[in-house]
Structures are given as structure tokens and as C-alpha cells.
Amino acid sequence: MVTRLNRYLSIPSERFSFVKPNAVLLDIEGTISEMGFVSRTLFPFIKNNVRLFFEETYDTKETLPMIAPITADRDRVLETITKYSLAHIIRRSRISEIKQLQILIWVWGYEKGLIKGHVYDEVTTVLHQWKNELEIDIFLFSSAMITAQQLLLCSTNYGNCLSVAISNKIQIDPSELILPISKSAY
Q1: How far apart are CA 128 and CA 164, in angstroms?
Q2: Cα–Cα distance between 165 and 50 in angstroms, integer?
Q3: What does the pLDDT look like over 127-145, one tens digit per residue?
Q4: Structural domain that includes position 165
Q5: Rounded distance, CA 51 to CA 57, Å?
Q6: What total number of domains does the chain contain?
Q7: Between vectors from CA 151 to CA 147 and to CA 152, what angle results, nearest 5°?
Q8: If you write DSSP's letter for every residue of 30-47 in order, what string do you get?
Q9: One MF term from GO for this chain (predicted)?
């Protein structure tokens, strides 16, 4: 998708009439990153590493509130919190503490270099060209957690792409955005 749009922006004007956009609104999955990266890579990473995460971060300020008060020995607490967390993760529970845990595990994984976000080969070059040479603002739209998007883009197979990928953050309910776009299309 990114490559196709870049080809249109690169065609000489005598062959094709094209008005340069002021901004481009992109989704992450399927546009700048492979479809299914989150479900095939990030969620399995959480499931496979929840126990190790708790073992390595047991005494940290981020983890202690999740397991306090500690009334049993460390191994028993680790076993219990791992089983409990996995049960909710597998069920995709919408509990805020489980969402927070997922983010903490991703941060831990990215910081340790255990996972890398995925972007297509041409993404950094194309987005840099749009943003800096063509002065097109770039916005990302996704229903995923903003923190998860930022983590994915901060540690990719091409390094930190966050500053290249976005011009500004827009935090808006998708339903508020869809109506104005559909109205202006008619």
C-alpha cells in the first residue's frame, strides 16, 4: 500500500495530474506492518513469557502492586500469578490490569531485545520522504492500544521509526472520525 501511493507521488506531473495531500492517514496493520503481526507475534510472546517476566521483575515497582500482599513463598506466588494471568490473557479479558500487564511484558520484551516490531522494507524511506521532502503530515489510525503502537514503532526491524512515522498524535474515538470523513466524500 505504501509503495503504491509513493509511486503516484513520484510520477512526473506531465503524465499524471495529482494534487499533493496535506496529510495521509495510515493504519499500522496491513499498511506499514504485516497483517497479523500482533496476533502471530506479540500475543504469543506474552503467553510464552509471562512466567519469565514475573520471575525477572518480581521485586520491581511495576510488578509488586500486581502481586501484593505477598502471603506465600515466591515460587507459589509466581505459579499462581502466572496461571491467573494466562487464563485472562487466553480469554482476552478486557480487565485493565491485564491490559497493563500485556504492555509491561511488551516493554520488557522490547527492552531486552526479545521482540522487534515489524515494518515493511520501504516504510522508513517512504515515510521520511513524505514527511520531510514532500511536507505531508502523517497520522496513524488504529483501534489498537496507543502504547502498543508506540512500542511496535520504537523498536522495529529498522530501528526506531516512531518519529518518522507520525507527525502528531490524534486521540479520538473512531466513531467521531468516521462520520465526518464519510460526509465529506459525498
Answers
A1: 6
A2: 30
A3: 888 888 998 888 887 766 7
A4: 2-33+117-184
A5: 10
A6: 2
A7: 115
A8: TTTB-TTHIIIIIHHHHH
A9: acireductone synthase activity
